[in-house]
Amino acid sequence: MASTHVLLPAAASCRQPARLIMAALAAPAIMLSAGAATASASARPAFTSGSASISSLDIFVREIGAIEARAGAHSAKAVWPANISERSQVVRVNGVEMAVAAFSFDPRGRPVKILAWGKGAWRVATQLPVPRDPFMLDHPSSLYLFASGQDAAIIARGSGARSSTEFFIPFGGAGCLSGAVVTNISGSWQYATFAGPAKSAPSSQIVGGNPRFVDQTIVTDNDCGARALSPRYTYIWAYNASRGIFTATTRPGWPSKP
Fold first, then answer.
1. For position 229, what pLDDT does the model report?
2. The pTM is what?
3. HEC states along 33-101?
């Protein structure tokens, strides 16, 4: 049975037919209509609570997870346990309730799904592949997600001067917390790309250094890499529109823990 970890508790509600879930997964990735559910420069996200969308989101994610887990049980592409999923809170963007869910396995190689609520049901609006990092092995169908614990939930925040919605997907592993950030850039849901530590260093769709949202800004640090006598640094990330990438400003010291 697929294991789903959520940020908000939800009660069981209307069950969506399995054939609709299968159709949503098999369909090519589709984009939400402009002005309907895309994050804009003027739309701050608002968390929703107590609605039918929240109570049915867990069921929708569980049913997708069950399909993915069954496929992973018989696939050599499933590098890690295939029955784990994470989801975000429900966020209202431009009047539409949205969420992001991540699955530890997807046979089509699209384990991250942007979900939209409309006409009394959830649908898969966009599906993303496994984020790329030049320093990590490429497992195109698998994500290493947390099986339990407080980190096992996708965090949604408004981030940066654009006031758009970012979803941070935490990945499992030892040492520093790392993960990917799903954002809406020019009407397209995609992974944020982070500049390397030096101009010559390659960029990555995975950011390490204990990523968190502080005052609606993505912040990381060198808490893992610094030794007892090493300088402590905090990195404040901002979107550079001319480069289409997030770049960091370095400040001394570490940020407070969330």
1. 60
2. 0.77
3. CCCCCCCCCCCCCEECCCCHHHHHHHHHHHHHHHHHHHHHCCCCCCCCCCCEEEECCCEEECCEEEEEE
